């Protein structure tokens, strides 16, 4: 067995597996929203406010969900804070949201149909 200094003290880092690492989801969503906003000017304002101006998936979901049930007596800003605090305080909820996004994007994986 050869001796000497190994170039790596541990195995070299491997690229993240998108099926195991949810960090790829937000940049992909933003890139698709940017592309769609450029090609569909009618949707640009909506995509900007719900996705492109948001700093994270948590913020985007909180903004979107906070605007759904709002009314004059239930302000979207209060709901936004409630949703954001919930997402921020529960990493399992964020993981479930990523799993839902992945399932919506790839329904054949859920139904067992071939790709």
Give the ordered list of helices and strands.
Answer: HHHHHH
What percent of residues adopt helix (DSSP H or I)? 55-70%
Q: How does the major sheet shape up?
A: none
> What is the CATH superfamily label?
serine acetyltransferase, domain 1
Share in β-strands: under 5%
Keywords:
mainly alpha, serine acetyltransferase, domain 1, 63% helix
Question: What this model shows, in words?
Answer:
The protein has 115 residues and is mainly α. The protein has one domain: serine acetyltransferase, domain 1. Helix content is 63%, strand content 0%. α1 runs antiparallel to α2 and α3 packs antiparallel against α4. The longest helix has 15 residues. The chain is flat and about 35 Å long. It starts with 24 loop residues before the first helix and ends with a helix.
Explain briefly what this protein structure is.
The chain has 115 residues and is mainly alpha-helical. It has helices spanning 25-39, 41-52, 57-67, 76-89, 91-105, 107-111.
Topology:
Blueprint: H1 25-39, H2 41-52, H3 57-67, H4 76-89, H5 91-105, H6 107-111
Helix pairs in contact: 1-2, 3-4
